[in-house]
Design a protein that fits this description.
With 425 residues, this protein is α+β, with helices and mostly antiparallel strands. It has eleven helices and 23 strands. It has a five-stranded mixed beta barrel with strand order 9-10-13-11-12. Strands 20-19-21-22-23 form a five-stranded mixed beta sheet, sandwiched between helices. The two termini are 35 Å apart. The structure holds adenosine-5'-triphosphate and magnesium ion (MG). The site of adenosine-5'-triphosphate has 16 residues, from strand 8, strand 13, strand 16 and helix 7.
């Protein structure tokens, strides 16, 4: 993409009412636009990041047998009354509206009821199970506070998978596979080294649920972490009994601020019972389906990446989710030889499948470099009169900072192998 065609521009300042670092940097870089508190539009650069994160999650979900679909955003009162979750006294964050014909509907704040209601149509025999449908979807919650930028939206985009299993044993096997899939996702997007599986409150059907908590001061949660074993406990369930049960020692635990980037939950028959979601087993006996839920907020995940991987100059995207692999910056300043060379390199990189943003604007070098640092593409390649005379190019890794002069061919190699920030534990 030519930067002269990208309508977004970087900004020196974020809106005065935006207090979260993630949203400040993403707004200044032209990734997102703030509509109101807790509501953001994704601009071209932001959508490229969102699409990459979505693809990483999709691949992991498909690997464990997930099957993608898309549930409706509008939800009917009747379906949610089955579990008593339509009532505002039970769920206080619905966005609802009255219909002209007198009915009522709400915007999805979660998906359990929608999935249970749909799967009820298709599951009748043990042969129909297990199944693992999931979707990516916009979710709406009337959150009381929204001060964490895209980490806590009133409208946000998530992935939710629901598992439908024949019994607890079958459920447990899948649940373990999802733990691995989740850690793979957080490794792949570059925050694996800061993300810990955390024991959290479980509800009626299991003692614990598991949250994936990324350590950052921008987080709204507190966890107690054993840095040696990597086991963490959410403050909500932290007590002497739990510590002993998990084989931890109080003196080894440190309290950290963290953000829940994903969670997995055993639901038992909590939803299958009210929907009468049953199957006939081999002996002809009717049994309730055992369910689990598995969520990840994509906006929250992107916000967390920005909180963790940024410096005073801007964002430092890991290559796996960066909007582009290469930021090609020409300092042509009207010199036709320099811009012709940059155009040739841009065409070669693009032809090789290396996603390149070409800063072809007529602007000062200082401005171009500051924008490049803010946007945070992993590899910056500079073409100037000086490099042209040498027959070389100047490269800089955003994550390490130092510049070097290299042969043009080296750029192709670096662009493919420049994922230096994706550290794993
Ligand atoms: P929290 O405890 O942070 O309020 P939650 O436990 O209510 O979140 P779930 O309903 O289980 O979250 O949603 C699954 C995932 O969706 C969470 O792990 C998180 O990644 C994401 N998520 C939840 N609420 C928001 C929000 N308001 N904005 C962005 N992402 C969210
Ligand atoms: Mg939670």
């Amino acid at each position: 993409m030519r930067q002269s065609q990208l309508f977004t521009k970087t900004r020196k300042e974020a809106p005065a009412d935006e207090v979260a670092k993630n949203a400040q940097l993403l707004i200044r870089g032209g990734f997102i636009h703030k509509e109101m508190a807790g509501v953001y539009s994704f601009l071209p650069l932001g959508l490229r990041v969102l699409d990459k994160v979505e693809d990483i999650i999709r691949q992991e979900m498909n690997k464990v047998g997930g099957i993608e679909m898309r549930t409706a955003v509008f939800q009917s009162k009747e379906v949610w009354e089955k579990t008593n979750r339509w009532d505002d006294a039970v769920v206080d964050n619905w966005f609802k509206t009255k219909l002209k014909n007198g009915g009522e509907m709400g915007l999805s704040f979660t998906n359990e009821e929608a999935y249970s209601n749909i799967l009820k149509q298709y599951i009748s025999s043990y042969k129909d199970l297990p199944v693992y449908p999931y979707d990516f979807k916009s979710i709406f919650r009337n959150e009381a506070r929204s001060k964490s930028g895209i980490m806590r939206g009133r409208e946000f985009y998530w992935k939710a998978l629901y598992s439908f299993s024949r019994d607890e044993a079958e459920h447990a096997v899948f649940y373990e596979r999802m733990k691995t899939a989740y850690q793979n996702i957080f490794n792949a997007v570059g925050i694996g080294h800061r993300t810990y599986m955390t024991f959290a409150s479980g509800g009626t059907f299991s003692k614990f649920s598991h949250e994936f908590q990324a350590i950052t001061d921008a987080g709204e949660d507190s966890i107690h972490l054993d840095e040696n074993s990597g086991i963490a406990v959410n403050k909500e369930v932290y007590n002497d009994e739990v510590i002993t049960e998990l084989g931890l020692r109080k003196e080894n635990l440190v309290e950290k601020k963290a953000v829940e980037v994903g969670n997995i939950f055993s639901l038992g028959t909590k939803f299958s019972a009210p929907f009468d979601l049953k199957y006939k087993d081999k002996d002809g006996e009717d049994k309730l389906v055992i369910m689990g839920s598995y969520g990840i907020g994509l906006g929250r995940l992107i916000g967390t990446i920005v909180e963790i991987l940024s410096d005073e100059k801007g964002i430092i995207w890991p290559a796996s989710v960066a909007p582009f692999a290469v930021h090609l910056v020409d300092l042509a300043a009207g010199d036709n030889d320099v811009s012709a060379y940059a155009e040739k390199l841009y065409n070669e990189l693009t032809a090789c499948g290396i996603e390149t943003l070409w800063d072809d604007r007529d602007a000062r070098a200082g401005e171009k470099f500051a924008d490049s640092d803010l946007i945070g593409i992993p590899l910056r390649v500079v073409i100037s009169k000086k490099t042209l005379l040498e027959g070389k190019v100047e490269v800089k890794m955003r994550s390490t900072g130092g510049t070097t002069i290299v042969e043009k061919e080296k750029v192709f190699e670096l662009a493919r192998g420049c994922d230096t920030t994706t550290a794993t534990k």
